[in-house]
Specification:
2 copies of one chain form a homodimer. Chain A is mainly α. The first copy, chain A, has a domain of about 80 residues: Orthogonal Bundle (Arc Repressor Mutant, subunit A). In chain A, about 60% of the residues lie in helices and about 5% in strands. Chain A contains 6 helices and 3 strands, in the order ααβααββαα. Chain A has a 3-stranded antiparallel beta sheet with strand order 1-3-2. In chain A, helix 1 packs across helix 5 and helix 3 crosses helix 4. The longest helix of chain A has 21 residues. The first copy, chain A, binds a DNA duplex (30 and 30 nucleotides) through helix 4. Chains A, B: Pfam families: MarR (PF01047). Chains A, B: It comes from Neorhizobium galegae bv. officinalis. Chains A, B: One of its GO terms (molecular function) is DNA-binding transcription factor activity. Chains A, B: This is Transcriptional regulator.
DNA sequence: GTTAAACTATTGCAAATGCAACTATTGTCA
DNA sequence: TGACAATAGTTGCATTTGCAATAGTTTAAC
């Protein structure tokens, strides 16, 4: 018997929204959104990335990301470069300031995760992560298409 | 060692966004958003609800929900009533059309969930759900406060 | 019983989002 | 090589969103 409130998509969204709300609060004093933090943290992990790759990783529309990276660049947290050997891609990198800010915020992220999984065993957390990865790979990528239109 | 791409919040968001994208596509032909579907499915489950309760359950801002329910009402999928014994709350109910549409869409939701958890055992799915519930209850509710401001 | 406080929903407004159109560059194939 | 297709990113525009302010109603306090 189907129950919305016991369905995976619903529970997933509910947990995701709440965790994002909390983190959003934590980093608001630095005028960062969660997506912005993810861009920074991603770049710290990979050193550099194109816009398109970043969009995939951060799960955000490329047009949105373009503007978002624009504001990060304006704040000197990242740099944007078009390589000479390839004029259509844009390479995004962390600036020293960006790196410093990211490292300052990482403890909050870790702390938040710890709070979220409180009461779960290491094995349970591992299982959770692998379930989340599996669901992601079980579903098609929907590039471009697909009205999100609320209302 | 912290890695964004192996953190729970990140994996949660990634899976949630993707599953929502897919479902969004599925129901786009009925001009419904995921949030709208959740409102309908929720009302089917509970028969009636106030706006505030709905907002909690569906994890959206009450102002957003107010407008969303407004458009659902315009389409005769739900009804809005202010009870005589309490003039400040609004009771939202499914209309027969709303109920019919919801029941038409439920199979899609079930199918989607099945696709998402493909390859996982019943026990794994149960563990996943309980982990998602636990994380939700582990985190504070953030009523009202908290800039979400991207950009 | 009257005034103040709390609660519930709606609306204004500015910011953010996504799709589509566009620009610019690179790759293909004849 | 030259034209056409494909790729990558940006921008325009309409829609959506969230916060703050507001309006209306009920509860509490005195």
């Amino acid at each position: 018997m189907y129950k919305l409130t016991d369905s995976v998509p619903y529970l997933l969204n509910r947990a995701g929204v709440r965790i994002a709300e909390v983190f959003s609060q934590r980093i608001a004093e630095n005028d960062l959104s969660v997506a912005m933090y993810r861009v920074l943290a991603m770049l710290r992990e990979r050193k550099e990335s194109t816009l398109g790759d970043l969009a995939d990783v951060v799960s955000v529309e490329i047009s949105t990301l373009s503007r978002l990276v624009g504001t990060l660049a304006k704040r000197k947290l990242v740099s944007r470069t078009r390589p000479e050997d390839n004029g259509r891609i844009v390479i995004v990198r962390l600036t020293p300031q960006g790196e410093a800010l990211t490292e300052k915020l990482m403890p909050f992220a870790m702390e938040l995760e710890a709070t979220a999984v409180q009461g779960m065993s290491k094995e349970e957390v591992t299982a959770l992560k692998s379930a989340l990865k599996r669901m992601h790979s079980n579903l098609p990528a929907m590039s471009g298409k697909g009205k999100t239109s609320d209302q």
